[in-house]
């Protein structure tokens, strides 16, 4: 029979070993995947890539830079996302094509894909469910479409996704870049996720809000924030897509997306400045918010800014996926649901 005193050193040894393994796992997880917030600085990402590079041979969670560069169809220089990606990118970055990872059956651009198609796109990019993904834009624009891709990944439940703030600063700070043809990645099998519909506002829901504007019993005071330029919101400037009238939804608040960005770096303003922007526009953080824009892209810039400023409850914020492109094509001219002027 083994004595109790003989068992004590063994138990102590096992306890210490378990404690060390737990601590070691926590430390490794922290060095691999920990960022200070949803927005990631260039230096934070550079440090993380040194510790957990996106190599195909690693079975551990990796940090994957994901370029989401995209330009409006009326871009005066005719630029495309894939062109600027080939010209200059973060080493080993992958390219997310915002014009292809969509609901291709929809007549409206950039509508969310279904879960199966999203999983297929992630598999083709070689992204694993456990990877930490940092999405970024072109240096030319600073911030434009990366928040949309980040939001899309969150809608489909990817657990670790961040936005680089931003690639222009990455370049200015002399951090490494590469150029040339895109290197191939080893495809994987990304699990088909569940779509979080609570993050998405449909046409029918937004129509109810617009119809109930100024009705004391209507829509629980839901606020609609429009990220388009003032000229498009007011109906003075044309939409970039031919044939669409400009204007805005009844009661919507115009907050052009560039008003939440630094005018020089095009990075997001600090949280305190973001709070000032929303407060000055009369946005009530206690009421639900729906962000909209032209096609659901820059609306996600406002959603990201709201998150960074901790302005309003995340459970009460949604993005109108179809945005103005869907709205202007589906409402009837005699509905009085397209307003112009102030």
- Largest beta sheet: strand ordering: 1-5-4-2-3
Number of helices: 11
Proportion in β-strands: 5-15%
Q: Report the order of strands and helices.
A: HEHEHEHEHEHEHEHEHEHEH
Name the overall outline. globular
Helix proportion range: 25-40%
Q: What would you call the structural class? A: alpha/beta
Low-pLDDT parts are: 1-32
Overall mean pLDDT stands at 88
Distance between the amino and carboxyl termini: 89 Å
Largest sheet: 5 strands, parallel
Kindly summarize this structure in a few lines.
The chain has 342 residues and is of the alpha/beta class. Helix content is 34%, strand content 10%.
Describe it for me?
With 342 residues, the protein is an alpha/beta fold. Helices cover 34% and strands 10% of the residues. The chain is built from eleven helices and ten strands. It has a five-stranded parallel beta sheet with strand order 1-5-4-2-3. Strand 4, helix 5 and strand 5 form a beta-alpha-beta unit. Helix 5 packs across helix 10 and helix 9 packs across helix 10. The N and C termini lie far apart (89 Å). It holds the Pfam family Rhodanese. InterPro entries: Rhodanese-like_dom (IPR001763), Rhodanese-like_dom_sf (IPR036873), TST/MPST-like (IPR045078). One of its GO terms (molecular function) is thiosulfate-cyanide sulfurtransferase activity.
């Amino acid at each position: 029979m083994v004595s109790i005193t003989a068992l004590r050193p063994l138990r102590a040894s096992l306890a210490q070993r378990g404690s060390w393994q737990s601590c070691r796992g926590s430390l490794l997880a922290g060095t691999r995947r920990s960022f200070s917030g949803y927005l990631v600085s260039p230096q934070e990402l550079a440090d993380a890539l040194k510790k957990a590079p996106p190599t195909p041979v690693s079975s551990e969670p990796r940090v994957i830079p994901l370029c989401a560069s995209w330009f409006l169809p009326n871009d005066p220089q005719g630029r495309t996302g894939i062109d600027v990606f080939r010209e200059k990118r973060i080493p080993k970055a992958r390219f997310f094509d915002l014009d292809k990872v969509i609901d291709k059956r929809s007549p409206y651009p950039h509508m969310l894909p279904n879960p199966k198609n999203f999983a297929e796109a992630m598999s083709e990019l070689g992204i694993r469910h456990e990877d930490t993904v940092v999405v970024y834009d072109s240096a030319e624009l600073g911030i434009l479409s990366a928040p949309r891709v980040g939001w899309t990944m969150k809608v489909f439940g990817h657990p670790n996704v961040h936005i680089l703030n931003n690639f222009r600063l990455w370049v200015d700070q002399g951090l490494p870049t590469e150029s040339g043809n895109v290197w191939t990645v080893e495809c994987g099998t990304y699990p088909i996720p569940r779509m979080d519909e609570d993050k998405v506002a449909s046409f029918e829901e937004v129509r109810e809000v617009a119809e109930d504007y100024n009705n004391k019993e209507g829509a629980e005071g839901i606020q609609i924030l429009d990220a388009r330029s003032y000229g498009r919101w007011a109906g003075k400037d044309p939409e970039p897509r031919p044939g669409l009238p400009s204007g805005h939804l009844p009661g919507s608040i115009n907050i052009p997306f560039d008003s939440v960005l630094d005018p020089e770096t095009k990075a997001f303003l600090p949280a305190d400045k973001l709070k000032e922007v929303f407060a000055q526009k009369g946005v009530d953080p206690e009421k639900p918010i729906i962000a909209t824009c032209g096609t659901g892209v820059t609306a996600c810039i406002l959603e990201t800014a709201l998150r960074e400023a901790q302005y309003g409850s995340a459970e009460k914020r949604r993005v109108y996926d179809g945005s103005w492109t869907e709205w202007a094509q589906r409402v009837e001219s005699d509905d009085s649901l397209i307003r112009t002027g102030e």
